[in-house]
């Protein structure tokens, strides 16, 4: 009897453990999509700042999938890991991640869907990300486009995903100074440099030839993770290394210690077509033909518009570090004064945003 009880307890424990592991990987395919799209776009335009937030892009792709002909639907479903999953499960997973992002109060996101024929916009719908998820199975974009346009006339579906990030760091900043940021092509740009002196997690990552620094945002559950290459001109090499680096292993490289982190104050606005990046990833059919019932409707373009910055806005949390010269002289210093890659992530390592600053 005791043996049977132990066996049942072990079975229950294994089921719970397996469920936990599965829950932790529910959104791995979407995160992988975001990372692969980031690298595809970064390699084609290395001279530009880059920002990618995979969640809003994925939600609008899933909306298209529900309407799409077989090839387009398969490509989207395959890359986002949706094939074989019930709609209810997919919706629950995306709702859960969206709730986490909304709870931070850092993200403002939306999707615009326009129908264009003969270069005239005949309809535009603006949806929040939550509304995008809600109408996955009811927003019949192919039927709507066919009803609004003349039969046989070439019709484009244009989509724009928007994201704004509201930066609020956790710890108070010391007085700022003037300094130089060295761009990807060797130019120098004078910038205001922010002094962030606090106890944070950081460490060298030999496989990346870079140092990683984790800076907390105001809620204490969201973090800016900076990858700063040791070579000021090494941003392309960092991209290549990061592409194959297991981000899940980052905790083993980070140690908590005091650090004087010199950050550039900046605000970057990025507006770019992700069409070529999606085609490179294998999602090109929708740009030729989207709808099963008619061949003249296609996705014309998908544009991602975003803004991100670092500034003096903080929650004002006390660092409990004396600001006398003797104490500060003993604290290691890292200057973020050349191109870097960064993530915005949760304490549980959900990746919300990925970016690159080169200018």
UniProtKB/TrEMBL annotation:
It comes from the Eukaryota. Pfam families: Serpin. Residues 35-358 form the Serpin domain. GO terms for molecular function: serine-type endopeptidase inhibitor activity. SMART domains: SERPIN. Residues 1-24 form the signal peptide. Keywords: Protease inhibitor, Serine protease inhibitor, Signal. One of its GO terms (cellular component) is extracellular space. Belongs to the serpin family. This is Serpin domain-containing protein. It comes from Lucilia cuprina (Green bottle fly).
